[in-house]
Amino acid sequence: xxxxxxxxxxxxxxxxxxxxxxxxxFMILVPFLLLTAAFAHTAMVDLNLPVSSEPETEEEEKxxxxxxxxxxxxxxxxxxxxxxxERLPRLDDGSYDFEGLGRQLSEVREAHPDEQMVIVAASPxxxxxxxxxxxxxxxxxxxxxxxxxxADPEEPR
Length: 157
Prior knowledge:
Blueprint: H1 20-36, E1 67-71, E2 75-80, E3 83-89, H2 98-111, E4 117-122, H3 128-140, E5 145-150
Parallel strand pairs: 1-4, 4-5
Antiparallel strand pairs: 1-2, 2-3
Helix pairs in contact: 2-3
């Protein structure tokens, strides 16, 4: 007979996972992505949109000025209580008369010191920068509540 042999047991040692190469990739990739990322600088404009609600108390039923600044192709129009206060045509170079608008709004502010709201109405063809400039003039004149709305069709001359 055959002599008894011992079976040799093969002991398998489980190796640890080598994560060094992937860590090297992340050490290069993360700074590269941070350096090439484009961070957008945005500016925020605080707007108070009109609310369609009924006044709750009698104090709120006072007559408002309903100040509205319309920005149209022909120029600027300042209106209040359904009556046009002043019409500011475009200047000779084609720009808007923002200085005249600032003066007009300051006069309205002096006449109505408790009025805080103004509606800036612009037709769709008007450049956004012009609307922002009008809003800046309203803010500098002391009107803290600025709303945006669509412009009425221009009246025939």
